[in-house]
Amino acid sequence: MKAFKSFLLALCCLFAAPLFAAEAPEMADAFRADGKIYVVVAVISIVFIGLSIWLFRLDRKISRLEKNQKS
Amino acid sequence: MSTSSTETSAIARHWWKIAGVLLVLYSLIWGMLGEVPRLFVLNETIRNLYYHVTMWFGMMAMMGVSLFYSIRYLSKNKIYDDFKAEQFAFAGILLGLLGITTGSVWARFTWGGWWVNDPKLNGAAISLLIYFAYIILRNSMDEEQKRGRVAAVYNIFAFVLLMVFLMVYPRLNKVDSLHPGNGGNPAFSGYDLNSSMRLVFYPAVIGWIIIGTWISTLGFRMKKLEYQKMMDSFSDNNAGISTPKDIL
Which residue from A4, B31, B124, B172 lies 20 to 30 Å from B181 (Cα-Cα)? Predict the structure, then answer.
């Protein structure tokens, strides 16, 4: 009887194992594994590079104005 | 200041802007690709630490520089210090507005509401209102000496209140904040900033501070051009009176 009880307990633990596994925080692992995350990173990078180029151009324009004002 | 226009001197003068852009770009890319701790509730949104929290760090740095120029204006009475204080406060407000909107989105998906009754959120909102009042106060005065002095004194109070509302008040034991490091919650060093996250977070903070400084200097240079033009036309119209160079 005692052996049966412990066997039952072990069985329960075995079935419960996936339940514990499912309780791990859900992360976007599939998204990453597909490689699709690189698409998002590429888009973000392009937007930011575009914005910084705009800032550099504005900087140049102001520099030109400063030069004109001095002369 | 910028007498030579050769390519090398341009790089020598602008390298810090490129550094800022590269640091932020690095944080945008590695913020998405890097390893992050697996936590309940937060899940992947922990990455917002690189994009949301950096806004607030940037804002505080901008407000700190603004305070520095306000104090210098009060002691040296140079109008350009007042312009700099104003422009850094503008950049700080821009970063603060981005911080509060991004925070609202993050709160919606982790705390369950666009706005939760959290002392840090309310403190941030109050601080932003205080800085809006700074702009309104500036615009309400025409005489530049008076405006500069009143705005500088107000800016000192605004910065103290910012510190109280963002750093002191949410950390009091009597109030409960959902933010890490507040109201008994574990701080950065506890769970949500492990060593791999630090490698992205700190460069991101430095990068955003540089970009905020860059935007502030652009605003200042525009304002200076406008002011010089105004002064030139003033001296043209009054041939006998020279521009008050001593206040520049």
Answer: B31
